[in-house]
Write a structure and sequence with these properties.
- The chain has 345 residues and is an alpha/beta fold.
- It has one domain: Metal-dependent hydrolases (TIM Barrel, Alpha-Beta Barrel).
- 50% of the residues lie in helices and 13% in strands.
- It is built from 16 helices and 8 strands.
- The protein has an 8-stranded parallel beta sheet with strand order 1-2-3-4-5-6-7-8.
- Helix 1 packs antiparallel against helix 14.
- The longest helix is centred in the middle third of the chain and has 19 residues.
Length: 345
Amino acid sequence: MDPIYSNTAVSPELMTRLRAMPKVELHVHLEGATDAATVWELARRNQVTLPASTLEEWQSMYAFRDFDHFIEIYLLAADCMQTPADFAFMTERFLAQQAQHNVKYCEVFLSASILLDKLPPAEVIAALAETIRQGEATHGVQLRFIPDISRQVPDSQYRVLEFVLAGQEEGIFIGLGVGGKEIGFPPELFTDVFAEARRQGLHVVAHAGETDGPQSIWGAIHSLQAERIGHGVRAIEDDQLVDYLRQSQIPLEVSPYSNYRLKVVPPDQPHPIRALMDQGVYVTVNSDDPPMFSTDLTSEYVLLARQGFSWDELWQLSLNALEASFLPDEAKAAYRAEWKTFARA
């Protein structure tokens, strides 16, 4: 049994039902959703040297000491992704994985600040657009990207915006995000570029309240006018912020396993998603960087079931993700109708 906090046994029947449950995912990174073996394969293909002599040694480096160590390994992995074909390859594998968990639609982050230093933007967009088209036909999974600015590379922010706008024209990019190291790189550094993104009709989201405290979430709300908050779990430290989130219903993209693996939440404590949900905060469930954290979207729901969430609560969390997505209203309505069939089964 995983050493993470658990107080409830989960029946095989519930686990089967959670796997079959239709899902939407709003917070997952393409680069971080690429497993260690695939990264190793890309490194060999692209003649990139990793600080490991075997695949097993590379896999062992996914036991993260803290957030900074995670970023170090994430950047090493991203460096192995050298061509547009690599991104198409990763996207195809990702869509196949999502289909296994009955994910119907996902909004996926791209670490644009990193990839733009080594790849022609137009070629990446063309490769991704074709893979999305083929992947939807093959796997029945819809995907749209939200490229994000790496906080620790603030000078890249307008290049990222240009990239997003080019992909918006192709119909595959729907928004602008900001991620990476919160501490030392507050939301206020990106106020102007987010304002321009909104003016251009893009959705805007921001990682906040993961490694930094409530002030980071306030900044994402007031300075960036973020429509959703990535993680946001440290809102629980500020009663006024919790009340604001309850009233505004700004969705939080919560990733429980990620928070435990990176020691944002102590392993012997229940995840704060329970307290946030009980106080009326709008929360969704996500996997963040699934193979890096030994998880997948089904496992995230199973973890919450192990912490006492009822089936009705887990089903509501899945519905929350659908409603918090940036899908057009008519597409949401079609999914609602489809999901009612599952709920009645």
